[in-house]
Amino acid sequence: MTRSPLSARPAVASAVLLVPWLLASSATAQPVDGKAAFERLKSLAGTWEGQAGHGQPGQAATVTYRVASAGSVVEETLFPGTPHEMVSMYHLVDGQLVMTHYCAMANQPRMRLDTKASTPDRLVFAFDGGTNFDPAKDTHIHSGVVEWKGDSLNSSWTVYSGGKEAGQNSFVLNRKH
Q: What are phi and psi of 93, to 5 degrees?
């Protein structure tokens, strides 16, 4: 049976319409490169202000980012100069983005970028051990997300206690300078 050129057009049109969707799908399915994610974190250098809270942001918060050690580390300081000050250090290990959070609870959870769950605008960090706590019993920050939303920076950090999720610490920030 011979097909006319007109009967082939719907299939061609459908294929043409699917190409952008397939390209977008394959682009979002690509793992995020640790080096590219680290460079994106470097762009945060400066002071950010907004709100933070357990669950929903509600209290005033300041967060500073500083690129240090010849560009090999990003230092994040939460609540600088307060009794609740905490520092997180982000750096690369064999091309993988890792961070250590130096918590006000005197423990140091480590996290690693989950490249498959992350996008260029949404970095997902998964628990990777730590010091000065037992993750099966003690309260600690277990995982987190850093997300760019237009001019805002949002982050949410999952708190674990007794080996299970116990809440979220959320930040909504805007660049001060």
A: -130, 110
Q: Can you give the residue ranges of every domain in the chain? A: 34-175
Question: What average pLDDT does range 110-137 have in this prediction?
Answer: 97
* Long-range CB contact pairs, 124-127, < 8 A, 24+: 125/99, 127/160
* pLDDT above 70 for 123: yes
Contact 88, 111 (CB under 8 A): no
Tokens describing residue 10: 């719907």
Task: Report the predicted TM-score, pTM, of the whole model to 2 decimal places.
Answer: 0.82
| Residue 62 CB coordination number (10 Å) | 17
Token digits for 20?
A: 């952008």
Residues ≥6 apart with Cβ < 8 Å to 146? 41, 122, 123, 125, 153, 154, 155
CA distance 93 to 128: 13
Q: How far apart are CA 163 and CA 97, in angstroms?
A: 25
Fold of 34-175: Lipocalin (2.40.128)
Task: Give the separation between CA 7 and CA 63, rounded to whole angstroms.
Answer: 61
